[in-house]
Design goal:
The structure holds 2 protein chains of 2 kinds. By secondary structure, chain A is α/β, with parallel strands linked by helices. Chain A contains 22 helices and 14 strands. In chain B, helix 3 runs antiparallel to helix 11, helix 8 packs antiparallel against helix 12 and helix 13 packs antiparallel against helix 14. The radius of gyration of chain B is 24 Å and the shape is globular. The chains are: A alpha/beta, B mainly alpha.
């Protein structure tokens, strides 16, 4: 009877209590509980829970075959990952190794002196640096010290489509913004939601802003904004980008109920898969998601293209947005640094590269290219590889680039602009207030 | 009926002479309450005067968090929403659970079976209930997708009115069984002699319900209302999972807003200030309710029978 209302009288107090107990614990252990108090013969790895976990499980199993100190994978449901990590990272329950997005996502931890610089590891095994593409590896370099090793695939955002739906409507995948608008009109007339959007999650909506701003104004606008020049949000390019988005929304491209749909609970991928929608703008992990749900669809009917070009826009049509990669970073207090180092070495092993490719992820190791043919979908992997290799600019997702405090207001503004609660001026004001 | 009864005896039975248990008996509970409720509460008050992201040590910043509270339109909106949810919960849950409780107090043949089925939500956790309804109400693959004439485009979570409607409905679905249980017990406790007297006086079923059953259930109703109010003020889990406070901030009730500040923005100082406001508001409302309703006196409804 957990949900009986009577205990809820206490829940408020209990909630504040939990907050306060957390404070006390964190206060106690803030000075560093020391490695000795950590679990014996165990190295804990905190990982974002999703479809890619099967590769992580495989790698851990391989490692544990020969190691006395066992690596234990702690999967944390994706939506709650960041909260959980921030809450435990300065306590004794902190994982030895944890998944992150590099850059802004670990900056606070570095400032708080919680992370182990990997320079010693790299000195012992230069391969921990040399075997990765340097542009990706550098995302987790802070103040000239390396704090992370790339551990998944690069995740550019692409425009996915359902090939059958496009063929039935007599359409080709659009390469320009005007073609996209045209396709929206045709699909809508056919009674199909042109673009699936998991608006309930908010971050899928954000992807549309990231790309349209890049195409219209180039990557410089956001770089200026994040550097503190909020005037750029009032620029003509910014207003034009918002006007183009508004035109797309008003054309019915996303239907009317996108805010009730989520990507994370499988809603929007199912729309694309079932043919109720024709397109979805999503990170490269969408392949693994679709493959997980319906292997045949992923192999035969899942199409993908780069984001359409905007004619007359300042941004290069080859620019991409997304996450450069994910990283494993190491806690300073870890009890078994040698085990950790040896485990990290597996992140450039042939087995790792092949396993990632097998589920459609594209690792950023230097040996990736020679395995491209062995990928589950060699065509998809090759497409992604070229996309990343040829991109003049790779914009990190906005919510990862801003500090955590800005994340919620950013995503709320994005959602409100899409559903019409605020207009362009309202969005500009919200972005300037971040 | 009770008001008319002559008061021959003192309403407060059993003074110290009867040998009531002393404070020692309450010590374990008091200690527990002090350690796990009052002490952390004090810490939260302290934290509300600091800036802290969860890493390193909290830094005292004086009244900044409290000044920010009065300059935060979203917080005021959230307080308004919280009150709205409480009112909606009362309006929907009280009448429904009274009617069901009174019905379930009878001895009809089908009652046991129907009651058992109806109590199932009581056995599920809030998280499970929220996930369940989120899936059931999916606009494309859930119920709304099957009956478009009733739900239109099914954008239940995308508009404020329908999102509030969903949250109110799910709360009703979740908690009505519990209050039904309370009212069933209360209705069973009404002495049959009162109904017999009413019948002799010529009162029909409806009249009996309003003049006998309802007044006799007064204390149970007040208890339930207080539980609903305090429960409503702290409702959080269903909001997090069903609407995530959206669209925009349209269903961001104060507990959820506190969570956003603490565990999304990692501004524990500001979140603590909001928590203190919430504790004060909940305490004040409970006290007012107890005073106004005379619940504190706990008079028996059967005085004089």
């Amino acid at each position: 009877m957990k949900n009986r209302p009577r205990p809820r009288m206490m829940r408020l107090l209990a909630g504040t209590a939990a907050l306060a107990v957390g404070v006390t614990l964190a206060g106690c252990s803030g000075g560093g509980g020391g490695a000795e108090s950590r679990p014996e013969n165990e190295v804990h790895v905190a990982i974002y829970g999703d479809a890619t976990n099967k590769v992580e499980e495989q790698i851990v199993a391989t490692f544990n075959e020969t190691s006395d100190v066992k690596v234990i994978l702690d999967k944390i449901p994706g939506a709650e990952y960041q909260q959980k990590l921030q809450t435990i990272i300065s306590t004794q329950n902190a994982p030895d190794i944890f998944f992150n997005w590099g850059g802004g996502s670990i900056q606070d931890f570095v400032d708080a002196d919680l992370l182990l610089p990997l320079d010693d590891f790299i000195e012992e095994d230069p391969g921990l640096q040399d075997n990765f593409l340097s542009s990706v590896f550098d995302t987790a370099v802070i103040d000239d010290k390396a704090y992370g090793v790339p551990m998944r695939g690069t995740q550019p955002v692409m425009l996915f489509n359902n090939k059958t739906v496009l063929a039935d409507a007599g359409l080709e995948a659009p390469t320009t913004w005007d073609e996209l608008l045209e396709a929206v009109g045709v699909l809508k007339a056919d009674g199909i939601t042109p673009i699936a959007l998991g608006g309930g999650d908010q971050w899928p909506t954000l992807m549309w802003f990231q790309y349209i701003y890049d195409r219209v104004a180039g990557p410089e606008l956001f770089q200026d904004a994040i550097a503190g020049d909020t005037d750029v949000w009032e620029s003509d390019e910014s207003k034009e980008a918002l006007a183009m988005l508004r035109e797309l929304i008003d054309a019915g491209a996303f239907g009317t109920n996108f805010d009730s749909v989520k990507f994370t609970d499988g809603g929007s991928p199912a729309l694309l898969r079932s043919g109720k929608a024709a397109f979805e703008l999503m990170g490269s992990w969408n392949y693994a998601t679709q493959q997980d749900a319906d292997l045949e669809f992923a192999e035969n009917n899942l199409g993908y293209t780069a984001f359409p070009e905007v004619e007359g826009g300042k941004g290069d049509a080859a620019n991409i947005v997304g996450n450069t990669n994910n990283f494993y970073s190491v806690i300073k207090d870890t009890r078994y640094p040698d085990t950790v180092r040896d485990f990290l070495k597996l992140m450039y092993s042939d087995e790792f590269v092949e396993a990632q490719l097998a589920i459609g992820n594209l690792p950023t190791t230097t040996n990736t290219e020679k395995f491209l043919d062995t990928a589950a979908a060699p065509e998809y992997s090759a497409f992604q590889f070229d996309l990343v290799k040829n991109a003049p600019a790779f914009q990190l997702s906005w919510d990862q680039a801003y500090p955590p405090a800005a994340g919620t207001p950013l995503k709320i503004a994005v959602q409100q602009f899409f559903n019409g609660q605020i207009d362009a001026d309202g969005f500009i004001a919200a972005m300037q207030a971040l | 009926m009770t008001a008319l009864a002559p008061r021959k005896r003192s309403t407060r039975l059993g003074g110290p002479s009867v040998g009531r248990p002393g404070f020692v008996w309450a010590a374990p509970a008091t200690l527990f309450f002090g350690l796990f409720a009052l002490f952390p509460l004090v810490l939260v008050v302290v934290l509300s005067f600091t800036a802290w992201s969860g890493l390193g040590d909290p830094r005292f910043i004086g009244l900044d968090n409290w000044v920010a509270i009065f300059d935060d339109p979203i917080l005021f909106k959230s307080l308004g929403l919280t009150v709205l949810f409480v009112v909606l919960a009362l309006v929907t849950q009280v009448p429904l659970s009274i009617l069901l409780g009174v019905w379930a107090a009878g001895f009809q043949k089908n009652r046991a079976v129907l009651s058992a089925i109806y109590f199932i939500p009581l056995l599920l956790s809030s998280a499970a209930i929220s996930v369940l309804w989120r899936a059931l109400l999916d606009p494309n693959f859930g119920i709304p997708g099957q009956v478009p004439f009733l739900f239109g485009d099914g954008n239940l979570f995308g508009k404020q009115s329908t999102a509030i409607g969903v949250l109110t409905f799910v709360a009703m679905w979740q908690f009505t069984p519990f209050y039904t249980l309370i009212f069933q017990g209360a209705a069973r406790a009404v002495p049959p002699v009162l109904y017999q007297a009413a019948e002799i006086d010529g009162a029909g079923t409806v009249r009996q319900f309003f003049n006998v059953t309802l007044p006799q259930m007064r204390n149970s109703i007040i208890t339930s209302v207080i539980l609903m109010v305090v429960g409503g003020l702290t409702a959080f889990d269903t909001v997090l999972i069903l609407t995530n406070g959206g669209p925009g901030t349209d269903t961001a009730v104060t507990p959820f807003y506190m969570y956003q500040k603490a565990f999304r923005a990692f501004d524990f100082g500001q979140a603590s200030a909001i928590a203190v406001v919430l504790v004060l508001a909940a305490t004040a409302i409970s006290l007012v309710l107890v005073r106004v309703s005379g619940y504190g006196k706990m008079q028996s409804a059967q005085e004089g029978i």
